[in-house]
Amino acid sequence: MALREVRVAGDPILTKLCRPLKEMTERMSVLIDDMFETMYDQEGVGLAAPQVGVLRRLFVIDVPDEDEDGNEIDEKHPIVFINPEILETRGEKTLAEGCLSIPNKVANVTRPEWVKIKAYDRDMQEFVMEADDMLARTILHEYDHLEGHIYSEMAEGPMWDIEDVEEDGDTGKVRLKTAKGPGRKSNRKKHRRRRL
Ligand SMILES: [Zn+2]
User: Which of 63, 95, 119, 130 is the least buried, fewest Cβ under 10 Å from its Cβ?
Assistant: First the structure.
């Protein structure tokens, strides 16, 4: 396995439509392994093939579970989506989002809160998955990459530097940090990086 270079916004490859995979090849299998390794290395929860310069309809995700206090549970849930097709979406939710292709930035994005998706796994077996919350958001964000879209196109308000924002523990949205007086306790949840 090897780390791949992650393309950043401004690279024209991120605006191109990706082509379906006809079959699983050794080359694609190596790509999938490399994408997981690159995603974990950069502490991301999702990575799409065009982000590593490959215009194929393929993305990988691993969205951590959280305990009751919102801390990530260190347990792997890698999932590969090949030739994905969004079957249905429901609802709407605004949450903080980031992207490995736009390093150290974050913004609020409104997306459906539930998704039903069909895709193929790395054995090219078809599966259907229903997802909500952060898993749905990650799937929809990565799917957009395959269509040549990046989340900054749909960001609400400015793209903020990740150091300048705090996350509202109740809504999951980000906002600019407010000045805190000395000794004032913050009950905000630890800001989680949402790098997709
Ligand atoms: Zn992204």
Answer: 130
